[in-house]
Amino acid sequence: MSISEATIREIVEKVVKQSLITRENADFKKVKDPSGILSVSCDTVQTEPFKGAQGVSLKDIVSLEESPRMGAGIMEVDHTSFEWTLTYDEFDYIIEGTLEIEIDGRVVTGHAGDIIFIPKNSHIHFQSPDKARFAYFVYPADWQS
């Protein structure tokens, strides 16, 4: 019995599409629909230390291939402060703790459930008197360049 090339192609396409639907790794759980829609379980995201900033860790949750225009990730700031100049626009959704954004001697404070917008070219200090965990959304996506 032989299997047609069309049948093999159909089986391979189904396997490939199914493998793209759910991505679970040591970092976090991400579900990707074939349409490109993504769903990330934020509580599964394990952040990694951010170079040059003690008490700060983060993890991008979308790649440039998945979202070439907007970036997103999870950041934690643990009883610390660090200086940063944004070369992009950023929204921060505070998941837990207290996030403070210091700019020009003033402090904007956000608590769990709050959203903070930081415009491009702002020179700030990210800080927290406790341990803040927040989701960040940036435009453009390639914030590290």
TrEMBL record:
Family matches, as InterPro entries: EutQ, RmlC-like_jellyroll, RmlC_Cupin_sf
Entry protein name: Ethanolamine utilization protein EutQ
Gene: eutQ_2
